[in-house]
Amino acid sequence: MLRIRQALQPLRRAADHARVLSSKSAKSAHGLPLHISEIGSEQLYLLAKLEGLAQVPASRELMRREIMRVDGVPYLETTPVLLELNRVNAEGLVMKKLPYQLTWGAAIMGGWLSVPLVFSETIAKSFNDYFVTTDVPPSSELDTLLEVGSWTWNWMEPPLGTFSFVLLCMQLARDASNNLGAMTPHMRHKKQMADKLVDAFPKYSKDAVADYAMATAFDDDADDIEEDVAAYKKAQAERSAT
Fold it and tell me: In Å, what is the CA distance from 105 to each residue of 1, 9, 18, 113, 167?
């Protein structure tokens, strides 16, 4: 019996500890922020500098506070200015995103097309007729996908191998460039957009404007701004109710 009691003591202590934590959590839950406007400026500043899901709302909130500081307006009255900032930053957004979208589309299409070009007998023969014009093996040597691939690899290997090697060299060059502290083309593009927005709104903090511009560089933030206003009003109503 004594051994059983000694064995149960750690379980009892764990249960008591869990009850204490539960009561503390219930009390502390009332202090949790309901909206990003309830988070401190220091935390927002750090979040605005880090790429991730919190970067856009954090930089937007910091921009709101900067507008409040400079223009002396209440929280919700910062929305028109914030929408104007977004409008300027989103000018020509389609053309800004086009190179990245084309690269994405070409990579997806090239990857999928390489499969039938190597293993499909019908597509391989058509491709051979128009672009390669090499001798076609007897049908008995094209009975399986691997046999077709063995034939098509004679002309598919040079472009695929060369392109893969080019990508490898470009990746190594990018890593070396990053190690030297150089800015990537993606970051350079975002920096140019940030400089443009800073010049358009010189009365606000350069740091706050640049963070917002870079966080929303490839996205129209107008819809999210309106959703943020609705979320703020809902949080205020819940605070008032409690």
Answer: 72, 63, 52, 12, 16
List, for residues 59-74, the tens digit of each pLDDT value: 999 999 999 999 999 9
d(C-alpha 78, C-alpha 38), whole Å: 16
Which of 189, 181, 187, 221 lies closest to 88 in space, CA to CA?
A: 221
Residue 181 φ/ψ region, left for φ over 0, alpha for ψ in the -120 to 50 degree band, beta for the rest: left
Residues 6+ positions from 220 with CB-CB distance below 8 Å: 86, 90, 93
Q: What share of the chain is helix, strand, coil (3-state, %, to 5)?
A: 80, 0, 20
- Given a cut of 90, whether residue 21 has pLDDT beyond it is no
pTM attached to this predicted model: 0.75
Give all strands (DSSP E) within the chain, no chain letters: none
Q: Is 223 exposed, middle or buried (0-12, 13-18, 19+ CB in 10 A)?
A: exposed
Q: Measured between alpha carbons, how far is 133 from 206 in angstroms, rounded to an integer?
A: 61
Asked if 142 and 125 count as a contact pair (C-beta separation under 8 A), the reply is no
Burial class (CB in 10 A: 0-12, 13-18, 19+), 151: buried
Mean pLDDT of 80-88: 96
Query: Residues near 85 by Cβ (< 8 Å), separated by ≥ 6?
Result: 63, 197, 201, 209, 212, 213
Diameter of the chain by CA atoms? 90
CB contact at 8 A, 218 and 93? yes
